Amino acid sequence: MIWDREAETASAEAAFAGAEAAWEAQLAGLPGRSPFYARKLGQAGAAHARLSLRELTRLPFTSKQELKQAIDEEPPFGSNLGVAPERVKRVYQTSGTTGSPSVLALTEADAEAWTAIGSRSYFAAGIHRESSVLSTYGAGPFVAGHTYQAFGRIGCRVVPVGPGDTERTLFALRAGIADTLVGTPSFAQYLANRVEQAEPSAVDWPLAQVVTGGEPGGGIPEVRDHIQRVLGVRVNEAMGIGDVAPSLFGECEQQQGMHFCGQGLVWPELVDPDSREPVAIESGAVGELVYTHLTREAMPVVRFLGGDLVRIEGTSCGCGRTGFRMRCIGRRDDMFIVRGVNVYPTAILSVVGGFRPRVTGRARVLKVGPGVSIEPPVPVEVEVPESGADAALAGEIEAAIRTVLTFRAGVRLVPESQFGEAGYKTRLTVPQP
Predict the structure, then answer these.
(1) Which CATH number goes with the domain that contains 160?
(2) Checking phi first, is residue 240 left (phi over 0); if not, alpha (psi -120 to 50) or beta?
C-alpha cells in the first residue's frame, strides 16, 4: 500500500511515539558510528546523552558547510559515514555550484526510506497507480533521480524525458502518452507560455495535472493560475532536500499547501531564521525548517538547517492526512535585505506574474558583492516575449513592486532569447555582471 494511512493519519501522540522509538535507537549508536557526530556531540557535552525528541533543542545544529567539510577531510564519503564503505549501495552527487561536488551515500535501508517517503509525497500530490507520468527530472547524478524509484513503488506509467527537452515533452503531451507532467515550476511556466502563443488547443490534451518541484514557485497564485488556465490542469507542489530526502512534502487535491510526508523517518522542527529559537509548528507560523533523520545509516543528519523559509498553512486537512501543511516562501540563500527588511525573490515573482502576458513570468534579482544587503533601487531583470514590450512596462512593474513590497526597484526588460535557459531551474538571485 503506497499511502500509509496509519502513519499519515495517526494522531499526534501516536506519530510521536513511533518517531521517538526510532530516534532512541538512532541516538544510541550515533557517536560510535559517526566520528563527525561523536566530535560534534562531544563538543556540545551530549556525547552520552539520551535525549528525547522534545529535548532536541539541546543538540547543536548541523549545516551543509559542515557536512561538506567532513567529506573534504576524509574523501570520498567523509567522517560522517556511519557504516562500512562496502555497505554503501547508492551514491548521488550535489551540483557543486559553490565548489567541487559532494556525494550523498545511501545503504539499502536508506534508499528504501527515500523511496517510502517519496511515494507518500507523490501519492499525496495525485500520482497514483493509474497515472501516466511524464518526468522532466534527470535520472542522475542528482538526488531528483531517486524520484523514479518512488514512481516505481507507486506503480504508475513513467515517461522519462529529462530536463530541457521541450520538443519531446510537447510530442508526448500532444500524443496523449501522459496525463501528468512532473517538472520545475520554471519549466511548467515556460511550457505554458509557449503553448499559449502557439497551441490554444492544449486544454484539450489528456494532460490533467502538473506536479512542480525542485524550486519554489508552484504555489505562487500568479504562477499556478496561469499554468492551470493555459494547460487546463491542476497544479500541485512537491518538495524535498537532498541532504535529507529528495521528496518530503506533497500537496493533496485540496491545494492548501504541501503535507509533511516523512512521518516515522524524519523529524521536522521550525526555528526563527535569525535567532534560531524554536517556533511552534502551527497555522500562520513562519520559520526555517530543520530536519533530523531518524533512521539514516550511511550519512546521518541531526538538526540539519534546511535553508527553506516556510509558512505553516495548517495541521489538519480534509484529505485525512495529519502531516502539517506548508508553503515555501523562499530559500535562505536567495534572501536579500533592503534597508533592514528581508526580501525573498518569490515575492517579486508574484508581483511580476500579474503583468502576464506582457511578461513571461520569470524574473531575477542582480546582486553586487558577497553581502546580503542591496541598496535601492534593487536591480531586477524581467523576461518579456520576443515580440517586445511597450516602453511603459518597466515603470509599471517598478511602481507595483514599490506598492506591494515597499522598496524601489530598477527593472530591466530582457527578451526570452537573452534571459537564459528555461528548461529546468531559474536562479532567482544572480551576481550582477
Answers:
(1) 3.40.50.12780
(2) beta
